[in-house]
Amino acid sequence: MEWNPETAQFLSQCFLNTLSPLPEPRRRAETALAEASERSNYGLAVLHLVAEPSVDEQIRQSAAVNFKNHLKARWDPSPPREPNLPALNPISDPEKALIKSLIVSLMLKSSPKIQSQLSEALAVIGKHDFPKAWESLLPELVANLDSLTQENDYVSVNGVLATINSLFKKFRYQFKTNELLLDLKYCLNNFAKPLLEVFKRTVNLIDQAVASGAANAANLKVYIESQRLCCRIFYSLNFQELPEFFEDHMDEWMIEFKKYLTVKYPVLEDTGNDGLAVVDGLRAAVCENIGLYMEKEEELFQKYLSGFVEAVWSLLVVSSTSSSRERLTVTAIKFLTTVSTSVHHTLFERDDILEQITQSIVIPNVMLRDEDEELFEMNYIEFIRRDMEGSDLDTRRRIACELLKGIGMHYKGKVTSKVSLQIKNCLGLFSQNPDANWKYKDCAIYLVVSLATKKAGGSSVSTDLVDVENFFGSVIVPELQSRDVNAFPMLKAGALKFFTMFRNQLPKTVAMALLPDVVRFLASESNVVHSYAASCIEKLLLVKDDGTRARYTAADISPFLLVLMTNLFSAMEKPESEENHYIMKCIMRVLGAAEISRDVASACITGLTIVLNRVCQNPKNPIFNHYLFESVAVLIRRACERDPTLISAFEGSLFPSLQMVLANDVSEFFPYAFQLLAQLVELNRPPVPQHYVQIFEILLLPESWKKSANVPALVRLLQAFLRKAPHELNQQGRLSNVLGIFNTLISSPSTDDQGFYVLNTVIENLGYDVISPFMGHIWVSLFNRLQQGRTVKFLKNLVIFMSLFLVKHGLQHLVVSMNAVQKDVFQTIVEQFWVPNLKLITGSVELKLTSVASTKLICESSTLLDSKVRGKVLDSIVTLLSRPEEERVLEEPEVPDFGETVGYNATFVHLYNAGKKEEDPLKEVNDPKQYLVASLANLSAASPRTYPQLIRENLEAANQAALLQLCKSYNLSIV
Predict the structure, then answer these.
(1) Cα–Cα distance between 66 and 29 in angstroms, integer?
(2) Cross-strand partners of 461
(3) Which of 155, 149, 175 lies closest to 107 in space, CA to CA?
(4) What is the pLDDT of residue 503?
(5) Strands in 64-204 per DSSP E
């Protein structure tokens, strides 16, 4: 794309139309720009447009945004996430060079809004090219910075500093590597001194403005912002380790840092929040810098420490009372917390200091503010994320408690005493006037919950601040028993959170007496309250006694099960809780624990189907939807196990919804739908109903297998059909279609295990007379993979497949079918692949299958394999069986939690409750170890002295000893 008047006109019109309120011209313009962006020099042309002073400012600003996004996408484009999406054309090297030569000077000449976009664009380039592929950048920025500060053009100075800040941010979050340290050294060599110079020059300008008494607010504002940016760059350059230059000039930095924490700037601070926010931004940056030095260079920093602690302390006492100064408050408290956990913790030892901390810093910051109430009411998801899920580390409430924990590391008794007294005072104030002073009770509950200590590796918590049962009875129970579920919702939420957190410590009788009240709170109008009620019930059902036995059983839930389920489904009808995953997770957990009667099952499948039909219209909450499908799966599993006649009723309810998923191409739900269909197929008794056969036909179409995320669920469904309707395979060439699917899956390392699942199910469920015409095709596919790209996973699966074939259809068929493809290949496969990979098999069923099959191989192959090969097979069997097996988990594990990473486009998500039970193809063999020694004993009795020699010559010494021990254990001998 050449820069000429026609191009300028075309781009100007397009960018103007992108600002149109009308959708049609806006869409046309966006499409035209997307097409133009594929042409070479497009980015350069847009940059020329941004630089054109005759073009309207709004158009140039829109062009600057487009330029930045163009660079993000194409400077160093990543491969597309979806395989069917085309890769983006990268910007050519000559165009890159021209852009880099122009962007700095253009950025500095631009208006603030355009400058901001170009600064971000420059940072995008810097992320990939700086410093190695753009060595001229930093010297150019430094030269401009020097001239701009001399001209007192601080708007442009701050533009340069903001750009450098973006470039240097990588030193804060990237792992320390030699390459990173070399980049850091380059930046230090070129910018440590200029940074100090611009910082000191700005110090003088601020001091002069303040001293003259005629400080101009606008000028002072840009100076203060400049110092904030210098502080952020200081933080980046010092983050990895303390550079020598900064150590040599520490006084110059620290003196000014302390000044900014102690000096007031009335012309900014007293004229509205905007000015105060600018000054507080600088102070917060200073707090982060001194916190960094406290963590990394405590010894060097020691001489400044007491002065900074005093300055931060004084600042906090004032800022803690203001709701608009959160960032400053949080960073200041973090600094004090760092000091409290260091060797200088004695600064917090005195009783009066602790008293002041709890009264003047902790209580004001833990007390609810108007913005907390607003968040509670207007954005319940964010409130819960902060309050219950621990993302509130950078909020006042949490960080104030972290300070107490820090001090408590060395002065636990004193902290406990002071905080306990504050809790008592808060509850006393509440009791004087509950309606007016309810926030004091909330503060008391929050302190107990936030300062509780979690036991490592478990869900139990403990506290020394209060007696849990007494506090629960006197403070929490009155809230839970309140008849008005909508009164004082934040207190109700706090009470439910306390109940949830201390659920392990509370006796079952106490909890059971209050469970009906928690069920009532599901009817609360507050999204937070009914979410916390659902979470409380869900977590109670996970409590275990003695680490294994569920404390709350189906019998405990039965008396109020119907009202519980009714309230849970009703809660999802409340505004903004239509897709509340706390409620759906609770439904899943209750259905997994309760005794599901026919009435409950009918009501629940109706409710879940209604929800499923609704979310099919617009799937947007993957966590909620996952728990929805888990709930359907657990309901099917548990209800139909108890009453098989429910299967047809469930099919009647679910089939229309599942058909809608498939017909409307709701691709996000395909894996779930296929897993549920597999579950239903497996619950049916043969013959499988006709409507399933229609699905079977769809399943065999190659198009169904194109999306990788669907493959595991499709395999699961295919296995269900193969088990339940094996006779259907002989009709209409279906077995050929199934083996075609196997062939496709086995050819790729990412899906070969799924191919083996299909193949194993065919081998297990069909007679040899049916599969024998296809065995040549099967072996050719497997041998091709062996030659072209075998992996350990593939080899283990191959051993399992051959073992299954041997025990189901006999050694003779195995050998003949393999050697028919290639002469004597069987012995080669045994020597090169079976023997070395047998010892790698894991899983109890797989271990039994492969060890028994290998034992049969030894016993039945004396004419096929020489004694050395059979000896090596035996050595591998003993290695496999003499390893300590993992203890078998008798009870089902809990359904795993699904965090924010659950998505639609990435990978298949397994439905735990729709999983198939593992089939044992050798139910007649109880103990593979006994089977081995008994088989060897019988074999050796027929050929005395043959097997002791085979064992001596081929088994490792440890395996000879292990085999001898096995013989003793079963009172058998090899002669």
Answers:
(1) 12
(2) 454
(3) 155
(4) 95
(5) none
